[in-house]
Design goal:
single chain, Immunoglobulin-like
């Protein structure tokens, strides 16, 4: 028998290494205030493990600290992790009185809003018929209880306040609605 009956053949294969680790970023370090939590969200992974021992695709951050997410696509042994740090800061507040008495006694004679870290302020006050009685784009401007140059009647007025809050590394938009009572 001859070795020539089966001619020698050759073939080649290429082996490529595929990185099956997920890639995600939680973003840059940031600030958080307890009354305005931040939602961290990563979608599309096969599994999630947060540093607080939760396993959801989102995490609500209400306090400062270091937050780590370890995730995988299909293989729990092939993971990727990212870390984000939050500094807890004092939450800016807008103090909104619920009543005022513009009667000349120098006590609560105007409706004055007070707050820190407030920018791009827009206030509109409406009477019971939906008419605009006061508008201000400056938080320092107060309503003196006048409407069209006359004393506004005693009663309840609705307000809409739109403003931005400076949280240091980002701005948060806030909208507040409510009522204020004018008494004499």
């Amino acid at each position: 028998m001859s070795d020539n009956a089966c001619p020698a053949t050759s073939d080649s294969i290429t082996i490529r290494s595929v990185d099956a680790r997920p890639k995600f970023e939680l973003g840059p370090d940031s600030v958080v205030c307890p009354t305005r939590p931040i939602i961290l969200s990563v979608k599309g992974l096969g599994g999630y493990a947060w540093s607080d021992d939760s396993f959801a695709d989102t995490l609500k951050v209400k306090a400062g600290g270091r937050y780590i997410l370890t995730g995988y696509l299909n293989n729990p042994n092939c993971t990727f992790a990212d870390t984000i740090n939050f500094e807890q800061v004092e939450c800016p507040n807008l103090l909104i009185p619920d009543a005022f008495s513009p009667n000349g006694d120098v006590v609560s004679d105007s409706w004055q809003l007070k707050g820190l870290g407030i920018t791009e302020f827009d206030l509109t006050i409406y009477n019971a018929w939906g008419e605009v009685v006061f508008v201000s784009k400056d938080q320092k401007n107060s309503w003196d209880g006048m409407y069209r140059g006359k004393v506004a009647p005693v009663g309840t007025y609705k307000y809409l306040i739109k403003y931005n809050v400076d949280l240091g590394d980002r701005m948060a938009q806030e909208n507040k609605t409510g009522t204020v009572t004018l008494v004499r």
